[in-house]
Amino acid sequence: MTPPLIVCMGVSGAGKSTSAQILAAKFELTLIEADDLHSLSNKQKMQAGAALTDADRAPWMQAVCRQLSTCAERGIGCVLAHSALRRAHREQLRSCGLRTLFLHLDAPRETIARRLREREHHYMNAELLDSQFEALQPTDGEADVVTLTALDREALMAQASARVVDFIAQGTITGDTGHAVTTHH
After folding, report:
1. Lower CB density within 10 Å: C or N end of the chain?
2. Can you tell me the distance from the alpha carbon of 23 to that of 20, in angstroms, rounded to the nearest whole number?
């Protein structure tokens, strides 16, 4: 059976890293933090408040895909914290040899802005939030994307865990219509 890849995706401040850490520990999967694979120049650019270009992101995506392909070759399942804002990036992640589920972590803009302001020791500048929302391409028609909305971390993790259990057990996850499932609480 092809190992699973659970991608915790969304804009900066959505809770990707925290959710990925919890899910990786709970399901005994390898954790990959895509932020750690950014070049120093990308981190400095974002820290200065400048949005990354597609050219800036290309080597980063290659590094992420190399890690995922290595996991696939070794039969290792993973949880990836990755923005996956663009459809093309989601397609790249799907092509790495792992059975993929995207958990799109969503929250109101005000909640995310507050989280970004409260962060310490992170290169992502809160001023870039608008550019993150602008870069987020719709996931409509992507059956392997589940949007989870919860203000409370416990509720979010309960939703995410249930989806991961279903995905691992059944091999796929779709709603009744075969389209992405959205869960709001």
Report:
1. N
2. 5
Q: What class, spelled out in words, does domain 4-184 have in CATH? A: alpha beta
- Provide the token pair at 90: 């989601």
Per-domain residue ranges for the chain? 4-184
How far apart, in whole angstroms, are the C-alpha atoms of residue 150 and residue 2? 30
d(CA 149, CA 112): 12
CA distance 179 to 6: 18
Residues in CB range of 135: below 8 A, 6 or more apart: 51, 83, 85, 86
pLDDT tens digits along 113-164:
888 888 765 555 556 788 889 889 999 999 999 999 867 889 999 999 999 9
**How is residue 64 written in tokens?**
């992420």
Q: Say which residues have a Cβ less than 8 Å from residue 13's Cβ, sequence separation at least 6.
A: 112, 113, 115, 116, 119, 124, 126, 129
pTM as predicted = 0.85
Using only the alpha carbons of the chain, give its radius of gyration. 16
The structure tokens listed for 131 are 């550019």
More confident residue, 145 or 109: 145
Cα distance between residue 172 and residue 99, in whole Å: 8
Q: Where are the alpha helices (DSSP H) in 34-152?
A: 40-47, 54-74, 87-94, 109-118, 129-135
